[in-house]
């Protein structure tokens, strides 16, 4: 006698496919698409979904978290400077005080709690999905993204002639980290010019990234290290407070844009 309820293999497959299709159909048109599921993208997604918006996070890897999973080097530890430890308090992540105003946490613990909080808030994910292009409408306003299945970049061209699919959204957030992949699609068309990120300077970079987080082009908001790449700000290495606060700031800016588009 099995302890599990009886089922057949076809029912398992159908359950997965129909659930995926329902979600994919619904999120072909989202309020916000966030490209990149690292700390800034997850934080922005959590805040926006918490506010009742339909949020899709597009991530090229099969795991979420980006640089937040492992923190500094191979050591599974990450640092945050005050006041960003308050986000760890919100998420229920334990941490130690290293120095005055400097805190250290276990990266897998912080990352898994942030992912869970983003899921709890109601954000949805498209994994193994890479940004291929953007949708541009009147006045070159960004109106969504064009995505493809990530593994095709490892296949020979003859085998990988796979057309991408477009996904519409009212706002797109570029949270792709150092690459600033979404902004680069506009740069290719001469619509924006990125400066490239500067050398490492923690004291300066964290404030600057949060301050510069915002709408960089109609319909496109930038968060996290993409902000440093666009504005030529210094990088900061394994300290993550500004990634979380930049994600929060990106969510505030996005909510304001959405409110202007359709006042509540
Ligand atoms: O790199 P990542 O963690 O970006 P972030 O949120 O945080 C940066 C820090 O981790 C660290 C740092 C500061 O502490 O210097 O590096 O700015 O996460 C970016 C995510 O975007 C995905 C990538 O796989 C990663 O998970 N990504 C990048 N390009 C694409 C993409 C793309 N073209 N399509 C889909 N996902």
How is this fold's topology laid out?
Blueprint: H1 9-26, E1 29-35, H2 39-50, E2 55-58, E3 77-81, H3 85-91, E4 96-99, E5 102-106, H4 107-121, E6 124-126, E7 129-136, E8 142-149, E9 165-174, H5 181-187, E10 198-200, H6 202-212, E11 214-217, E12 220-222, H7 225-231, E13 234-235, H8 241-261
Parallel strand pairs: 1-2, 1-9, 2-6, 9-12, 10-13
Antiparallel strand pairs: 3-5, 4-5, 7-8, 8-9, 11-12
This protein binds ligand 48F.
Q: SS-based structural class? A: alpha/beta
What is the gyration radius calculated from CA atoms? Answer: 19 Å
CATH architecture type = 3-Layer(bba) Sandwich
The coarse overall form would be globular
Chain-averaged pLDDT: 96
Bound molecules: ligand 48F
Q: DSSP strand (E) fraction? A: 25-35%
